[in-house]
Design a protein that fits this description.
single chain, mainly alpha, 0% strand
Length: 168
């Protein structure tokens, strides 16, 4: 690592590292409302399938669904954040937070299905981070101005209860 590399961005706040992986994984997870494929007809009897050594269940070659899939997404997101923090740059970190901002704003404006609570948490964490950039040298604060505005709007939207079909 060069002595000239700026690392001040790492000391802003630990919340993004702690809270974003689970929230972002929930936003990236397939929507529970999305239709599941139709059940297949039973296969003819054959030899038992090989077992997955990790779970002891028959190996299907299909990705897991439900909680294990969400846990796997969260673990992958945690590894990504860890790589960014340990080996990344301020520019790469801000690109990641811009990606999170896009996920959040898509859920807030309804163009993407998603967990509104996870979107709100992610929006608040990234917004707080971006506001703190004012205290650092460089262009980070100015560079994130549009994202701050989008996140402020998303937070307002996500804090507003949604109306369901029968409520007035």
């Amino acid at each position: 690592m060069s002595g000239r590399r700026r690392l001040d961005w790492l000391g802003l706040t630990p919340e993004p590292e702690r809270e974003l992986p689970v929230a972002v994984a929930a936003l990236r997870a397939p929507s529970p409302a999305s239709p599941s494929p139709p059940p297949e007809a039973p296969a003819p009897a054959r030899e038992p399938a090989a077992e997955d050594p990790a779970t002891g269940e028959p190996a299907t070659g299909e990705p897991a669904t439900g909680e294990p899939a969400t846990a796997e997404l969260a673990a992958a997101e945690r590894r990504r954040v860890e790589r960014l923090v340990l080996r990344g740059s301020r520019h790469g970190w801000l690109r990641y937070l811009a990606e999170v901002t896009e996920l959040v704003t898509s859920v807030a404006d309804g163009s993407r299905p998603g967990d509104r609570a996870a979107a709100l948490l992610a929006a608040e964490v990234v917004l707080d981070h971006h506001r703190m950039l004012i205290g650092l040298p460089g262009t980070g604060y100015g560079r994130t101005a549009e994202d701050r505005t989008a996140l402020e709007n998303a937070v307002r939207t996500l804090r507003t209860p949604t109306r369901t079909g029968g409520s007035r």
